[in-house]
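FAQ: What does a ligand-bound record look like?

Like this one, built around adenosine monophosphate:
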Amino acid sequence: MRLVLVGPPGAGKGTQAEFLCAHYGIPHISTGDIFRANLSAGTALGIEAKGYMDRGDLVPDSVTNSMVEARLNESDLDNGFLLDGFPRNAAQAAVLKEILKGINAPLDSVLELQIDEEEIVTRLASRNRDDDNADVVRHRLKVYREQTAPIIDFYRNENLLIAINASGSIADITERAIAALSPKK
Ligand code: AMP
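The answer part, i.e. the structure of the complex:
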């Protein structure tokens, strides 16, 4: 199963990604997690990403795309993968398509977690991450609307998009996702 998970900050991508990866036995590839790991380890990549992350801006495509390409060329992807937080704009979606063509591993589905902004603000207020303060959250939502939301149309046109309602309990949402992803008879 080769999946992309897309949805606004606070939609529960990270949480659902963990459950879906366990269910399908596939690695969870979160660009946000990779950036945060690099930040904690003090690598050059982490230092470069920090300012963008603190502001809630996207890290430049040149940096992000080569990081993802390296990850997708590792040897643990025989069962597939779940990409969480990538792609986040049209250019990244185009690059992803090329990378996957090169490794002969096209996407099966793009799962969109749909949730309204009021619930997002409530959820993010209960997290404790550096980039979750109110101003940065507002900016990340704006970046999502302007840069990331357009890729949903792109994937709809590619016939890959599956959207689910992402409000409710964590277990219900996981169940909804798995049902939506299972092949139709
Ligand atoms: P996330 O954990 O997915 O919410 O990502 C946290 C932050 O990491 C984002 O606000 C961006 O600054 C950066 N980031 C994560 N994924 C990407 C991406 N695909 N492109 C650019 N920046 C990203």
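Follow-up question: can I read anything off the structure? Yes, for example: The chain has one domain: 2-29+80-181.
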